[in-house]
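Team,

Forwarding the record for the chain on the shared tracking sheet. I've put the sequence and predicted structure together so nobody has to dig through attachments.
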Amino acid sequence: MNLEHILLEKKENVATITLNRPPYNSFGGLMRQEIVAVLTDVANDPEVRCVVITGAGKYFCTGGDVNEFASGQTKALEEKVSAQRHAMCEAVLLINNMEKPVISSVNGPAAGGGVNLALCCDVIIASDKARFGQVFVRRGVHPDWGGIYFLPRLVGYAKACELIFSGEVVPADEAARIGMVNKVVPHDDLEKATWEMARRFATSAPIPIAFAKRGLQNFQKWDLPQALDYESYVLSVVMKSHDIIEGFAAFLEKREPKFKGY
C-alpha cells in the first residue's frame, strides 16, 4: 500500500519505521493499517535483523487522533473503532511474534496508545525530552495497544494501577527509574545511541536471538525445569547451525563474526 503517514528506511540490516503524521504523530486515517503493512514487510524481509520504531519531529506519538472521535455519533464511532482495533491488535502481535529485536526510540512525548506502542517493543531507549502518559482515563476510554499486558510486566502491578488509574504523565528519568524504559540519553544523542544499539543487535547471531525472544516472553509462565528444557532444545538446534562455527572461529581468529542466519 502507499504510505502516507509512515516512513520506512532499511540500512545495514536495520529497518527504521518512523511515525510521520505531524504535529503529534497521532493515529489517524489509515495510519494503523500502514503500521501493519510495514511491520509485515520487515518481519518477512530476511535482510532485516533489527527494527526501530520512532517518531518524526518533536513527538513520538500521542495516541488516537482526538479530532476523529469528537463527532459524538456513537454508531459511526463504534464502527470506526472496530476497524482500527483490528489493525492495532495485528500490529502488536506482529511486533511480539517477530523473530527480530524491535527497539522503540522515543524521541518526545508519548501518550495513550503511543506509550503502549513503545511498551510492546522489546527494548525502549528514550530522549531526555520524552514523557510517558497513560492518559486514557482522562479521555473516558480504556487502555489499548496491549497496555494492560505490557505495563505491569515492566513496572509491577501496583505501579501500573497508579499510572493507569491516574493518567499521570511521567518524565523520561522517572520512566527509567521505575523500569518502563531501558535507557535515557540526551536528546541530541538519541539517534546515534539508537543506531549503535540496533547495529549491535543486527550483527549478533539471529537464530539464538529469535529463540531467546520467544523464551524471554514466557518468563512468567515457565518454572525452572521448563526454562531449562527450552534452553536445552534451543542449544540442540543452534549446535547444528553455520553461525555457531562462525562464532567460535571469529573468537579464535580475534575478529568480528559475520553471521548468516543459518
